[in-house]
Specification:
The chain has 12 helices and no strands. The chain is an all-alpha fold and 276 residues long. Belongs to the Nth/MutY family.
């Protein structure tokens, strides 16, 4: 594991006086370019509809994605993976269907709460819901029971094509170990820094297709099979935020573990402070 001596001077959330913050922003853009060239499109979020993404965002709280997939299969087989379906299903049956995702009683109530909110405020229409300004929607989502910043931003970015960056534990860990920011930094500060740093990438040439060659290990980040939602057209900046989140998840899953990081072979190893 690489460890770097940290300066005691703090500049905003950037804790390192030897490197200007603008250079840190440039470095983040390099992370994106290197990871995308190495692994290609990650096809996040894997879903056929916007509502499936919303349900997945709720269900993935405190559980592995494989468990979420089992719950989604159950909902799909029961024909209730829609606003209408969740509205009409009995709470007890919904709980049984999503049981594989864990905390199923809480999550079932939260899904019901979301649908009731959309029914009341937007006449049950996701089109009307997602047509609202990003800040307004984000505030409304955060006011719903069981919706924190990561869940709200996942819904906005992946289901609604709103330009917000999703910050998760992988992002915090990777950027802290690379001396970009402190792992304990407030979510909103990280989100704003990431969004600001990545904006120029939207003006670059269109992202290339998946590279023909892969790493010898076969690792391709956190890639999912292409789906209707992952391949849908979206604004350039939304696509950048989409890919960057998925790419960082790939680094976290395969290399930057919580207790046992495996830096050798990681595409971002060259960016570690002091790496030669």
């Amino acid at each position: 594991m690489h460890t770097a001596a940290r300066d005691s001077v703090t500049l905003g959330i950037w804790e390192f006086s030897s490197v200007p913050r603008t250079d840190k922003a440039n470095e983040l853009r390099q992370y994106y370019r290197v990871l995308y060239q190495t692994w290609g499109a990650q096809h996040w979020w894997p879903a056929e509809t916007r509502f499936e993404i919303i349900v997945g965002a709720y269900l993935t709280q405190n559980t592995a994605w494989t468990n979420v997939e089992r719950a989604l299969v159950n909902l799909r087989a029961a024909g209730v993976l829609s606003v209408k379906g969740i509205r009409g299903i009995a709470l007890a049956r919904l709980e049984r269907l999503i049981r594989p995702s864990g905390y199923f009683r809480q999550k079932a109530k939260r899904l019901k709460t979301f649908v009731a909110f959309v029914d009341k405020e937007y006449d049950g229409s996701l089109d009307s819901f997602f047509s609202q300004p990003t800040d307004k929607l984000r505030e409304e989502l955060l006011n719903l029971n069981g919706v924190g910043p990561e869940t709200a931003d996942s819904i906005l970015l992946y289901a609604g094509n709103h330009p917000v960056f999703v910050v998760d534990a992988y992002t915090r860990r990777i950027l802290a170990r690379h001396d970009i920011l402190l792992e304990k930094t407030d979510y909103e500060e990280i989100r704003q820094r990431m969004q600001s740093a990545l904006v120029p990438l939207a003006n670059e040439q269109k992202t290339p297709q998946d590279p023909a060659t892969q790493l010898e290990s076969g690792v391709r980040g956190a890639v999912h099979p292409p789906s209707a939602m992952s391949t849908a057209a979206r604004p350039a900046l939304v696509q950048v935020y989409n890919e960057m989140h998925g790419l960082l998840v790939g680094v976290g899953k395969h290399y930057c573990g919580k207790s046992q990081p495996q830096c050798d072979g990681c595409p971002l190893q060259r960016f570690l402070p002091g790496f030669k």
